[in-house]
Design brief:
Number of helices: 1
Structural class: alpha+beta
Strand content: 35-45%
Radius of gyration: 12 Å
Largest sheet: 5 strands, antiparallel
Strand order of the largest sheet: 1-2-3-4-5
Number of strands: 5
Helix content: 10-25%
Distance between the termini: 12 Å
Amino acid sequence: MSATNPATPEVQAIADKVKPQLEEQANRKYSLFKAVEFTTQAGQGTNYFIKVQVDNDDFVHLRVLESPPHENKPLALQGYQTDKSKGDKLTVF
């Protein structure tokens, strides 16, 4: 897993693209959805682990798979963890 870095505009765009998947799976709507930090893990494609602020002191961790370019697949939300705090570290899940 790579080092944890501050979220970039590209990472925010990835989070925004999977937001509807998260809202459907978690059965919740998020008005605030700000990517804060991220890390990546290479494998069959790239797994992005993204910490997203969804309220003042409420965060969600996302695991998003970006398939290899030749597979031409959309970004996929592979998992998520709710009830996280700003201080919770991103880990593989």
